[in-house]
């Protein structure tokens, strides 16, 4: 039997609003955690190492002196790009895992700036 006064629907709406507010709070908390994520990757057997954070900012880029001996500039450039991209992939994987934890695995219907979306 349906509630003729519409109170049942009102309570469902209130519950949904509370759930949305809880999710928003979790997402805000997670945003701070994501910014603190750091990932490091190496290319060329460790000749080039890059560290990035959850905001996709390069924190460090280390190039070993041996990378300059006998290496062509194009090869070194490729190693730099590879190290950075690998570190970004690691960060994205961690962000994805954190977001799955927050949303219970439900995909969000829109990208979230600052949260890997």
Describe the structure.
The chain has a 3-stranded antiparallel sheet. The protein has helices at residues 7-36, 73-103; strands spanning 38-43, 48-53, 58-63. Helix 1 (7-36) packs antiparallel against helix 2. By secondary structure, the protein is of the alpha+beta class. The chain has a single domain (9-103), classed as Ybab, Chain: A (2-Layer Sandwich), CATH 3.30.1310.10.
Sum up the structure in keywords.
rod-shaped; 3 strands; alpha+beta; 2 helices; 15% strand; 117 residues; Ybab, Chain: A; single chain; three-stranded antiparallel beta sheet
Quick rundown:
The chain is an alpha+beta fold and 117 residues long.
- The string of secondary-structure elements, in order, is HEEEH
Question: Structural class, from helix and strand content?
Answer: alpha+beta
Which strand order does the major sheet show? Answer: 1-2-3
The total of helices stands at 2
Taken as a percent bin, the fraction of beta residues is 15-25%
Percent helix, as a range, is 40-55%
CATH class: Alpha Beta
Roughly what is the average pLDDT, rounded to an integer?
84
CATH architecture: 2-Layer Sandwich
Number of strands: 3
Indicate the radius of gyration in whole angstroms: 22 Å
